[in-house]
Amino acid sequence: MSTQLDVAVRPGSPPVVSAEGEAAAWAEAHREALHAVVAEHGSVLVRGLGLRDADQVAALYQRLTGSLMAEKEAFAPRWTYSEGVYSSSKWPPNQPMCMHHELSYTLEFPRLMLFACLTAPAQGGATAVADAPTVLDALPADLVARFEQEGWLLTRNYNDEIGVPYAEAFGTEDKSVVEQYCRDNAIEFEWQADGGLRTRQRRSAIVRHPVTGQRCWFNQIAFLNEWTMAPEVREYLVDVYGVEALPFNTRFGNGDPIGEDVVQLLNKVYEANTAREPWQAGDLMLVDNIRTAHSREPYEGAREVLVGMGDPVRLADCSPTVNAG
């Protein structure tokens, strides 16, 4: 069943749809129409569903997506509410989570992101969005050409002191299982003397949307780079652990460091193309994870946003420009 939706489109804001009635039944009736709005605009915020608890959100997500993914290779802790339903990443409230595409460093990632706000922050905390083809077109041609040819390199250090321990990121303490996962997913790995794990994975920075064929800037180059960290955090971590032992960092695909100027440029282009709408309790947001980057802005007060990752798609089906490895 599908009915027409009244979509409010305003500059600087994601499209907004007003809903009435019981959340799961409304979603069932409007599923096709909602997906059509996401296909047209890249995202949609649904207001008026009155979402109140995790069970209600889980039932809603199951009606809106073909399947929910389990998170893997996590870079920040989350609470698990139920199978496929998570808290937002535990990240300092006063620091932004800059624009990124969820799990864009893996070989399989969600095509659809689902966000449900149970508690809205007192101030800030929007899940903002940016159109990836527009961002790609706004970047300098020579920089795009380099990333298209080389891809990007993600380096990670898993230990018990900073970041996420490998057992949490990979869902097991069995080193042989972790090693096999890395081999299967084109991740170079090296066990450290202290029992930690260091990894490197090369990925495409630009992909084609598997449905529309649009070229999309699709990565976490800026978000997971050392220069996006708050200066005092970066200085402390580099002083204590050294650049090579940061919990995560990004480089050009050939291993060259990415300069602060490049990271500032990427974040500036994202900001120039950002759309945001403050959360209200009970809101739902759907985001096409390949076409649309999302962020989490700094906030004050309590904030509870539940996350679902739906409709998995493989990198191999998105015309990658480099071989993973």
TrEMBL record:
Pfam families cross-referenced by the UniProt entry: TauD
Superkingdom classification of source: Bacteria
Keywords attached to this entry: Antibiotic biosynthesis, Iron, Oxidoreductase
Cofactor(s) this protein cannot do without: Fe(2+)
GO biological process, one term: antibiotic biosynthetic process
MF term (GO), any: oxidoreductase activity
Domain TauD/TfdA-like, residue spans: 23-308
Name of the protein described by the UniProt record: TauD/TfdA-like domain-containing protein
Organism: Kutzneria albida DSM 43870
